[in-house]
Specification:
This protein has 6 helices and 2 strands. By secondary structure, it is mostly helical.
Length: about 160
Protein backbone atom coordinates (compact mmCIF):
# COMPACT_ATOMS: atom_id res chain seq x y z
CA UNK A 1 0.00 0.00 0.00
CA UNK A 2 1.08 3.56 -0.69
CA UNK A 3 2.68 5.13 2.43
CA UNK A 4 0.98 8.43 1.55
CA UNK A 5 -2.44 6.81 1.78
CA UNK A 6 -4.54 8.07 4.71
CA UNK A 7 -4.75 5.52 7.53
CA UNK A 8 -8.54 5.36 7.12
CA UNK A 9 -8.09 3.89 3.63
CA UNK A 10 -6.61 0.76 5.21
CA UNK A 11 -9.88 -0.11 6.97
CA UNK A 12 -13.19 -1.41 5.61
CA UNK A 13 -16.44 0.52 5.98
CA UNK A 14 -18.59 -2.59 5.48
CA UNK A 15 -19.57 -2.72 9.17
CA UNK A 16 -19.52 1.07 9.74
CA UNK A 17 -21.45 2.30 12.77
CA UNK A 18 -22.53 5.45 10.93
CA UNK A 19 -23.92 3.40 8.02
CA UNK A 20 -25.84 1.10 10.37
CA UNK A 21 -27.26 4.09 12.24
CA UNK A 22 -28.27 5.87 9.04
CA UNK A 23 -30.23 2.79 7.95
CA UNK A 24 -32.57 3.68 10.81
CA UNK A 25 -32.30 7.47 11.00
CA UNK A 26 -31.29 8.46 7.50
CA UNK A 27 -34.46 9.83 6.00
CA UNK A 28 -36.07 13.24 6.39
CA UNK A 29 -39.23 12.08 8.15
CA UNK A 30 -37.63 9.98 10.88
CA UNK A 31 -36.23 12.98 12.72
CA UNK A 32 -39.51 14.83 12.25
CA UNK A 33 -41.24 11.97 14.08
CA UNK A 34 -38.58 11.98 16.81
CA UNK A 35 -38.83 15.78 17.14
CA UNK A 36 -42.55 15.50 17.83
CA UNK A 37 -42.03 12.82 20.46
CA UNK A 38 -39.24 14.80 22.11
CA UNK A 39 -41.55 17.82 22.49
CA UNK A 40 -44.36 15.65 23.93
CA UNK A 41 -46.60 15.04 20.91
CA UNK A 42 -47.40 11.31 21.13
CA UNK A 43 -50.63 10.55 19.29
CA UNK A 44 -50.72 9.62 15.61
CA UNK A 45 -53.15 12.34 14.48
CA UNK A 46 -51.36 14.98 16.53
CA UNK A 47 -47.98 13.98 15.09
CA UNK A 48 -49.43 14.02 11.56
CA UNK A 49 -51.19 17.38 12.00
CA UNK A 50 -48.21 19.15 13.56
CA UNK A 51 -45.48 17.72 11.35
CA UNK A 52 -47.28 17.52 8.01
CA UNK A 53 -46.02 13.98 7.44
CA UNK A 54 -48.24 12.12 4.97
CA UNK A 55 -50.36 9.46 6.73
CA UNK A 56 -48.76 6.45 4.99
CA UNK A 57 -45.23 7.75 5.56
CA UNK A 58 -45.97 8.35 9.24
CA UNK A 59 -47.41 4.84 9.59
CA UNK A 60 -44.27 3.36 8.01
CA UNK A 61 -41.85 5.45 10.09
CA UNK A 62 -43.61 4.65 13.35
CA UNK A 63 -43.60 0.93 12.52
CA UNK A 64 -39.90 1.04 11.63
CA UNK A 65 -39.00 2.92 14.81
CA UNK A 66 -40.94 0.40 16.89
CA UNK A 67 -39.29 -2.51 15.08
CA UNK A 68 -35.84 -1.01 15.70
CA UNK A 69 -36.59 -0.51 19.40
CA UNK A 70 -36.70 3.31 19.50
CA UNK A 71 -40.44 3.57 20.23
CA UNK A 72 -43.15 1.56 21.93
CA UNK A 73 -46.91 1.77 21.59
CA UNK A 74 -48.94 2.61 24.66
CA UNK A 75 -52.74 2.11 24.62
CA UNK A 76 -55.20 4.82 25.60
CA UNK A 77 -58.96 5.25 25.23
CA UNK A 78 -60.96 8.45 25.15
CA UNK A 79 -64.49 8.16 26.61
CA UNK A 80 -66.87 6.62 24.09
CA UNK A 81 -64.14 5.78 21.56
CA UNK A 82 -62.16 2.72 20.59
CA UNK A 83 -58.76 1.97 22.04
CA UNK A 84 -55.94 3.80 20.30
CA UNK A 85 -52.20 4.04 20.79
CA UNK A 86 -49.77 6.76 21.56
CA UNK A 87 -46.07 6.43 20.92
CA UNK A 88 -43.39 6.73 23.57
CA UNK A 89 -39.63 6.77 23.33
CA UNK A 90 -37.72 3.77 24.66
CA UNK A 91 -34.32 4.26 26.28
CA UNK A 92 -32.73 3.83 22.84
CA UNK A 93 -34.98 6.61 21.54
CA UNK A 94 -34.28 8.89 24.49
CA UNK A 95 -30.56 8.38 23.95
CA UNK A 96 -30.96 10.20 20.61
CA UNK A 97 -31.81 13.40 22.46
CA UNK A 98 -28.22 14.76 22.27
CA UNK A 99 -28.25 14.10 18.51
CA UNK A 100 -31.41 16.17 18.10
CA UNK A 101 -30.01 18.95 20.30
CA UNK A 102 -26.77 18.91 18.27
CA UNK A 103 -28.82 19.29 15.07
CA UNK A 104 -30.69 22.25 16.59
CA UNK A 105 -27.41 23.78 17.75
CA UNK A 106 -25.80 23.38 14.32
CA UNK A 107 -28.86 24.72 12.49
CA UNK A 108 -29.10 27.77 14.75
CA UNK A 109 -25.45 28.56 14.14
CA UNK A 110 -25.24 27.95 10.37
CA UNK A 111 -28.86 28.43 9.24
CA UNK A 112 -30.02 31.22 11.56
CA UNK A 113 -33.40 32.92 11.25
CA UNK A 114 -33.71 36.70 11.51
CA UNK A 115 -36.14 36.45 14.41
CA UNK A 116 -34.01 33.97 16.33
CA UNK A 117 -34.36 30.23 16.83
CA UNK A 118 -37.87 28.76 16.61
CA UNK A 119 -37.10 26.21 19.35
CA UNK A 120 -34.59 26.09 22.17
CA UNK A 121 -33.46 23.24 24.39
CA UNK A 122 -33.58 24.29 28.04
CA UNK A 123 -32.78 22.59 31.31
CA UNK A 124 -36.17 22.05 33.00
CA UNK A 125 -34.70 22.66 36.46
CA UNK A 126 -32.90 25.99 35.96
CA UNK A 127 -34.13 27.20 32.57
CA UNK A 128 -30.67 27.60 31.04
CA UNK A 129 -30.04 26.58 27.43
CA UNK A 130 -28.65 23.13 26.73
CA UNK A 131 -25.72 22.61 24.39
CA UNK A 132 -23.94 19.52 23.19
CA UNK A 133 -20.17 19.37 23.63
CA UNK A 134 -17.50 16.83 22.85
CA UNK A 135 -15.88 15.56 26.04
CA UNK A 136 -13.27 12.83 26.40
CA UNK A 137 -13.31 10.39 29.29
CA UNK A 138 -10.60 12.44 31.03
CA UNK A 139 -12.94 15.47 31.03
CA UNK A 140 -11.28 17.52 28.26
CA UNK A 141 -13.50 19.33 25.75
CA UNK A 142 -11.57 19.14 22.46
CA UNK A 143 -12.67 20.96 19.34
CA UNK A 144 -13.42 18.87 16.26
CA UNK A 145 -9.88 19.17 14.87
CA UNK A 146 -8.51 17.59 18.06
CA UNK A 147 -10.64 14.44 17.67
CA UNK A 148 -9.30 11.40 15.82
CA UNK A 149 -11.55 8.66 14.51
CA UNK A 150 -9.47 5.50 14.70
CA UNK A 151 -10.10 1.81 14.05
CA UNK A 152 -11.80 0.10 16.99
CA UNK A 153 -11.80 -3.54 18.07
CA UNK A 154 -14.47 -4.41 15.47
CA UNK A 155 -12.57 -2.84 12.56
CA UNK A 156 -11.71 -5.04 9.60
CA UNK A 157 -8.86 -4.45 7.17
CA UNK A 158 -10.00 -3.22 3.78
CA UNK A 159 -9.82 -5.69 0.93
CA UNK A 160 -7.69 -4.29 -1.88
CA UNK A 161 -8.88 -6.82 -4.45
CA UNK A 162 -10.93 -5.64 -7.40
Amino acid sequence: MDDRMPEAMRWSTENCTISRTMQILGDKWTFHVLRELFVGVRRFEDIRARSGIPRQVLTERLAALIERGLLRRHPYRLPGQRERYEYRLTQAGLDLYPVLVAMIQWGDQYLPLDGGPPIVAQHRECGERISVVLRCEAGHEPDAREVAIRPGPGARPRSLAG
